[in-house]
Amino acid sequence: MPLAAIALGSNLGDRERNLREAIARIGELGRVCAVSSFHDTDPVGYIDQPRFLNAALLVETELQPVELMGALLAIERALGRDRAGSVPKGPRILDLDLLLYGGLTVHTPATADHPTLTLPHPEMHLRRFVLAPLAEIAPEMIHPITGRTITELLTNLPV
């Protein structure tokens, strides 16, 4: 069964409860194999907002990448996120990003049902708040484009 890596983030409401509820719901999509610790991080990009709580998890799932991303977006909506009515990269109850799916590289166009999906996540290798939690649970996982492990990507980030 394919193994997917997912990043989780929350900076509104009870951040820890939001992440724990998301983890439980992702568990309904397959078998959650590992969950990182929670990392309290500064916002990046749009910085006039509360601090984030970030984590990563690994899930074995029979869902294909587009189906999995659709299910993750449905979890966000169910927990109160309105992507259309919010500031891009602004405050959010929940953010779920599909980072990796097996060793696949994917790029799908946006449709009425799904936004564009690019795998691996196009910015994951630049984000400490993504790589640090993922390195806890999948240090040797390989980024299929760079050929580097998650630990190598984290180690090579600028300070």
Task: Record keyword descriptors for this entry.
159 residues; alpha+beta; Alpha-Beta Plaits; 5-stranded antiparallel beta sheet; two-stranded antiparallel sheet; 7 strands; 24% strand; globular
Summarize the model shown.
With 159 residues, the chain is of the alpha+beta class.
Explain the layout of strands and helices.
Blueprint: E1 3-10, H1 15-26, E2 31-35, E3 39-41, E4 52-60, H2 65-78, E5 95-101, E6 106-108, E7 117-119, H3 128-137, H4 150-155
Antiparallel strand pairs: 1-4, 1-5, 2-4, 3-4, 6-7
Walkthrough of the structure:
This protein has one domain: 2-Layer Sandwich (Alpha-Beta Plaits). It is about 25% helix and about 25% strand. The termini are far apart. The chain has helices spanning about 15-25, 65-80, 130-135, 150-155, and strands spanning about 5-10, 30-35, 40, 50-60, 95-100, 105-110, 115-120. The model has no long low-confidence stretch (mean pLDDT about 95). The relative contact order is 0.20. Strands 1, 2, 3, 4 and 5 form a 5-stranded antiparallel beta sheet that branches. The protein has a two-stranded antiparallel ribbon with strand order 6-7. By secondary structure, the protein is an alpha+beta fold.
Radius of gyration from the alpha-carbon trace, in angstroms = 15 Å
Overall shape: globular
What's the level 1 CATH class?
Answer: Alpha Beta
The average pLDDT is: 94
How far apart the termini lie comes to 36 Å
Low-confidence stretches: none
Tally of helical segments: 4
* Major β-sheet annotation: 5 strands, antiparallel
Q: CATH superfamily membership, which one?
A: 7,8-Dihydro-6-hydroxymethylpterin-pyrophosphokinase HPPK
Proportion of residues in β-strands? 15-25%
According to DSSP, the number of beta strands is 7
Total domains, how many? 1
Structural class: alpha+beta
CATH topology grouping: Alpha-Beta Plaits
Along the chain, the helix and strand elements come as: EHEEEHEEEHH
Please tell me the CATH architecture by its name: 2-Layer Sandwich
Helix-residue proportion: 25-40%
